[in-house]
Amino acid sequence: MNDRTTESLAYRWVRLGAVCGLVVLVIYPLLIFVSLPDLVAIALVCAFGPLLGIACMGLYHFMAPVRKTVSLQIAVVSNVIAGSFLTMLLHDGLDFYRWILGHRGFSW
Predict the structure, then answer these.
(1) What whole-number distance in Å separates Cα of residue 101 and Cα of residue 95?
(2) Handedness of CA 71, 73, 75, 77 (dihedral sign)
(3) What is the rounded CA–CA span in Å between residue 30 and residue 43?
(4) Which end of the chain is more exposed for a tag (fewer CB within 10 A), N or C?
(5) Which residues contact 87 (CB under 8 A, 6 or more apart)?
């Protein structure tokens, strides 16, 4: 690969990461503050982790030309892992919320 292809690839990562980051910034408050239908909420939760991972990769390609360090790479990998954990947590939270709604009439 020549330098021109690499630069355009990095630019595309940055652009895609910015778009995915903005989508993540919309999804999370929607999940927290808006009562969504179950299917929509589950779809948004499942999309949250991959979108956050892409946003992190875009941020990496935005910061790497300035200074490519090991700590930057560790931060990106850690953030992608944290995004997957958060996705699992949100999914479990939705499942627990649906379980509570199903047992609402049950008295202890």
Answers:
(1) 10
(2) negative
(3) 12
(4) C
(5) 45, 46, 48, 49, 52
Q: Provide φ and ψ at 107, rounded to 5°.
A: -105, 140
What ranges do the domains of the chain cover? 3-102
8 A C-beta contact, residue 62 and residue 72: no
Tens digit of each residue's pLDDT (9 = 90 or more) over 61-79 = 999 888 889 999 999 999 9
Of 101, 105, 57, 63, nearest to 83 by C-alpha is 57
- Six-digit token string for 31: 């999940």
Q: Which residue has the higher pLDDT, 3 or 101?
A: 101
> CB–CB of 44/86 below 8 Å?
no
Contact residues for 86 (Cβ-Cβ < 8 A; gap 6+): 48, 49, 52
- Which two tokens mark 5? 């292809």
Q: How many C-beta atoms lie closer than 10 Å to residue 48's C-beta?
A: 21
**Which tokens in the block code for residue 6?**
């690499």
pTM, to two decimals: 0.79
